[in-house]
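Molecular record:
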Amino acid sequence: MLSQDVVASATVRYLGTSAQKARLVVDLIRGKDVGEAAATLRYTKKAVAPDIGRLLDSAVANARQKGQDVDVDRLYVRTAFVNGGPSLKRIQAAPMGRAFRILKRMCHVTIGLGERRAPQPARSARAAGGADTEQAAVAGAKTQRSRRKPAQAKAGAAATRGRRRSAGRKKS
């Protein structure tokens, strides 16, 4: 399920929380830089956040171990997903001799890290030949929108209100 673009990955299996609760936290860090994701997890008030934080640290350590030339500052969370695991089935006593079933759910969390490309130097204006400014002018003209004048809007609203009032019952 992990693509070839992933630099390193880490998986925690049989995490003692439901997949639904773990997905709430994993969705917060997907696509973020590693440092920003670690800070997000540190200040997230969810019980599963420290476990996912340790998993992120493990993925970074795997990236360092796997490739010595990996720049940790350019790593980001490329893929992060949560799969459901097995459920422990337990019984809780209920009134009148009955029993309720309790499912203690578990999940498996996987984080894959990717490396962002190094920032390339910007092209100079002379090399671009002024084509960028021309394209920007065309794009600006397309985004301009016409607006109704406030006087027209008020007049239209008043005319509508007048018709609604006159549509009532006739007095005899």
Notes: The mean pLDDT is 82. The domain at 8-115 is CATH 3.90.470.10 (Ribosomal Protein L22; Chain A). The chain has six helices and three strands.
